[in-house]
Amino acid sequence: xxxxxxxxxxxxxxxxxxxxxxxxxxxxxxxxxxxxxxxxxxxxxxxxxxxxxxxxxxxxxxxxxxxxxxxxxxxxxxxxxxxxxxxxxxxxxxxxxxxxxxxxxxxxxxxxxxxxxxxxxxxxxxxxxxxxxxxxxxxxxxxxxxxxxxxxxxxxxxxxxxxxxxxxxxxxxxxxxxxxxxxxxxxxxxxxxxxxxxxxxxxxxxxxxxxxxxxxxxxxxxxxxxxxxxxxxxxxxxxxxxxxxxxxxxxxxxxxxxxxxxxxxxxxxxxxxxxxxxxxxxxxxxxxxxxxxxxxxxxxxxxxxxxxxxxxxxxxxxxxxxxxxxxxxxxxxxxxxxxxxxxxxxxxxxxxxxxxxxxxxxxxxxxxxxxxxxxxxxxxxxxxxxxxxxxxxxxxxxxxxxxxxxxxx
Amino acid sequence: xxxxxxxxxxxxxxxxxxxxxxxxxxxxxxxxxxxxxxxxxxxxxxxxxxxxxxxxxxxxxxxxxxxxxxxxxxxxxxxxxxxxxxxxxxxxxxxxxxxxxxxxxxxxxxxxxxxxxxxxxxxxxxxxxxxxxxxxxxxxxxxxxxxxxxxxxxxxxxxxxxxxxxxxxxxxxxxxxxxxxxxxxxxxxxxxxxxxxxxxxxxxxxxxxxxxxxxxxxxxxxxxxxxxxxxxxxxxxxxxxxxxxxxxxxxxxxxxxxxxxxxxxxxxxxxxxxxxxxxxxxxxxxxxxxxxxxxxxxxxxxxxxxxxxxxxxxxxxxxxxxxxxxxxxxxxxxxxxxxxxxxxxxxxxxxxxxxxxxxxxxxxxxxxxxxxxxxxxxxxxxxxxxxxxxxxxxxxxxxxxxxxxxxxx
Lengths: 409, 409
Prior knowledge:
The structure is a homodimer. With about 400 residues, chain A is of the alpha+beta class. Helix content of chain A is about 35%, strand content about 25%. The first copy, chain A, has two domains: about 270 residues, L-amino peptidase D-ALA esterase/amidase (4-Layer Sandwich), CATH 3.60.70.12; about 120 residues, Ubiquitin-like (UB roll) (Roll), CATH 3.10.20.340. In chain A, strands 9-16-11-15-12-13-14 form a seven-stranded mixed sheet, with helices on both faces. A five-stranded mixed sheet of chain A has the order 3-10-8-7-6, with helices on both faces. In chain A, strands 1-2-4-5 form a four-stranded mixed sheet, sandwiched between helices. The longest helix of chain A has 23 residues. The model of chain A has no long low-confidence stretch (mean pLDDT about 90). Chains A, B: This is Arginine biosynthesis bifunctional protein ArgJ.
């Protein structure tokens, strides 16, 4: 059961001028499910992406990076679920390229203008015949208001499609930002999440887009973790079709630039948080803030140690205020000269630990009250500086084990 | 259900001349369970220890380090279960010292000659009145052949007591090495495990003992992980009562030195592996070997990434040869310039991956056959050097979640 998340209402997902989406059932792994998504972009669109830091990155990730680096205008995205085309060696690269060639022929563009994405089981051969056979149906389905179907078409073990959309005024124009994501497990993105796409029609100078993609990822997908497993296929793409009727944005340091940038980041954060809310087996949405660090890096060490501790995660699943486990995680996070006698710990509004020990005033029933909530904030103070960071995670439940023990069955 | 582990037969645990053990029920946390263990050491014994690297180390760990550093002969160990006396601030330190003072009075020694150990729930006040009240019963129970009871007396969520013992000839003397350990969860020891004690009557030069403790920990407790959580209380102690009738061992580079050293390490390895076999919810004992690394450090990075991946661990629980998860873990382990196209993967005798991709000859049923075993070896080749490492871990099952969601209830 996702935590305070519901399927997006298709009416709430504003089409982005210049973006068309088609979804089909290609039987990549299972029959009768939407597993093939084609996105076409109008001429003049700018595209940027950030990708997994996993050294064992999937074939489509390698092809995406190559095509983006080539500098040719990207005109289409091709996404399949059911098969990650990772751990597939040279053969996997050829197969990913073959799908780009097939889609490019249909669209009369060059293969380098296609970005391929795959998600699903690792180390199995990508069935390109089925993908090629599914392309005509996906192309016949191309329309501007297909975002909800696309959100469904990229799911794996997600229980709900994930999408977000908003509009902002830029000059006299109304600019749209709409995006979709998928996640569920193997989620500790490193520069991006499993799959995330955010498109806008804002007329953003192409040179600004890669920086925006990085900033948006750092504020959103790079702040979430479910199980600490960084996927082989993480990809996050920001698209600007540049069709909105306003003066080109050439700097973020203007009212128009700020408005668009904030909208893109807000949509990215909503999509990233949706991944945690629908994390495999999640029953709680947990915000972890570590403050008082010397730099953000050490705050992140402590926050990830808490977020990845199976003991912390199972205690939250059980609504058990066994909060010493949080202290233990901070202790082994790798901050070498940490003084344990300065640590403070709050659980929402409840001040649990002061100067490294349990506060005499702390009462277990207060911790218990907070632990029973579905949304909880853990706040740790290191009292050694002014840096801080925040990330989002979920608990570890029986369902996580069930889902991952059964994923391929 | 522990993996190929049974309770030790008390008759197999050779007493160590110079060591006496008494166990009592003190009601530290629960009534009617053995939770207080006293170990006394004959005059002239040498003691060395290695302790958790967790910055949030428990009060007894801090006292142990202080007492060992003081250089006074250690004459007694005091171990309680049910309460870890961690995250307890200044008050916890005073309480740990108070228990040392109480035991020292009974034994007519100095408090600095006592090493205190606590294991159990974090962040709760140590009930020193109950421990003090339990001391007379523990002291009345002191005897040489109480190792099996002591192994029981230090358990927390362990389902079985853990002990190992062996004898070796040194000159004309028969030297004994006997030890006990406890573990279960919060196990990724860093220089030691939750609690491990190995005693020998070998006449080891005291100056050699600290090096032996470190080497034995590195070969055993520092090669195991259950959930990646490094405890606040990890302690591993090596005792030499020096009562055996042979020439003093002043170097490991002699037949006698090697025999004793190997026996201490063998007992330590057996105790460490027993912790994994009885890991919380464990159904499989997994040996991970990473070879072909440039140095051991990068082999350890990859091995721990595999061992800590919830996705790998749940796949092993399910006996599902979803082996791409192992490649993904190697990929995000943090070896920056790893070439994925060189990776090899064996599962026991089955060669699964070559040059980063699935071998054409690999058949799923071969992987399935190995995955169904209760003992499995994962062997990863990095093909970039000659370094290697091995560690031991277990799977992640529903019972792990159940145990840790219910631990305090």
